[in-house]
Each structure stands twice: as C-alpha cells, then as structure tokens.
Amino acid sequence: MKRLAAAVALVLAGHAAASLDRPLAPEISLLDTEGKTVTLAEYRGRVVLLAFTRGAWCPACLEQLLQLERLKGTALKSVAVLVVAPDPPEDSRALVATVEKQRRVRLTHRFLSAPRGRTLNRPAGEGDGKAPRLPPSLILVDPEGREAWHFVEREHRMRPSDRELARAVAKAAAPRAP
Q: Considering the entire predicted model, what is its pTM?
C-alpha cells in the first residue's frame, strides 16, 4: 500500500513508476499559488503532510482542509501541510478567499497545482485531458523524505480521525533506528 501512495505522488509529479524505491523528496516539483516551484527537498528535515484533493469544488476535500487547519494548533503544529490539487493556482486562491470570507477561517496550507493532464491512470497528453475523480489522500513524509504514513480511501468523504493523524505525526517525527 505504501507503494500506491508513493505512486500517486510520483505520477502526479510526472515520474515513472520505476522511481518508487527512491525517496520522495527529490521527486515532486509543482507550482504553488504564487507561481513558485515547490519541491519536497525544500522541506528536508521537517515532517510534511501532502494532502491530495479532488479540487476546489469538492465539499469533502474542503472539510479535510478545515480539519487540517484546526490541527495546526496541536498535532500538526510543526508539520508543513502541502495541498496538491488538480486546479490552476487561481482556483486555489479563490477557495482560500471564499473560506476566509464565508467560514471566517484562514487556510494557511501551501497549495500546489498538479496539471489536469497528469493523473494516476493517464500520463500527460493522453485521453480527454480531464482528471479522474481520485479519492482525497494524505501522505505523511518524514524528515528524511520517506513516506511514513498514508491514508487513501475509496469513499471520498472518509478521512482519518484527529487522533489517527496525531499518532501518525508522532511516529513520523520520531528518530529512526539505525
């Protein structure tokens, strides 16, 4: 199952499945809402939570983002949260503005744009260019850049509990035995 979670990250980043045994950190390179290139290598030494969403239109994904924002005061206090969405940067900026206005919550996650053509079951340029509706997924990356935990659920409304996330973060942050 860890290979599946790693495959999601690598395929969204446009890499072949043959790269699954390498650390995740150097593999992901996506644009944020400001147009800056972001890689996991920038976060080496920190725990990172990659939150893959179905897009700004997805209510279940929004609830997940709100859950993660709430947990930034406790379990996710020292965790960098990177939201990977199939949306263009302007859609993510609009989502953040709407949530702040309507829900009075400021989403402080860093939003990254994964082009619609790069999907789990179709490489860029193949098919109709529309992204399939993949379930929201979470991948926790340890300070060494390795996958420490993941949550992938077919039912898009399912998400891990606060307690489950807290345990996963504690495990990811713990020093690895030699």
A: 0.78
